[in-house]
Write the structure tokens for this entry.
Amino acid sequence: MANYFRITAYYPEKDFSVILDSNGKFEKLWQFSSYLVQKGFKIIQICTSKNFVDATFPALRSESNKILLRGIDKGKPIVEDVIHQKRPCKAITVYDKIYEQYV
């Protein structure tokens, strides 16, 4: 999972949010976020597999040259500050998909 990245982004033109995972398509996280910005997305949260804490959906198991849509909903995502095992985290919610990441 060396190149496993997750980005939560908002698309203001159509007012929807997404959670997107990439496992091998991009070498660097900035390449993934730059790609989305070029498409009109506003980046809300970014993380690597090292920052994942917990999620209501499983991580990708195999590498791929695709971007996987993990969650989508109307409006902006909900981002909350939480504590997990005495460490500060962010809990990100898009519809029924929730994940936590260390900050």
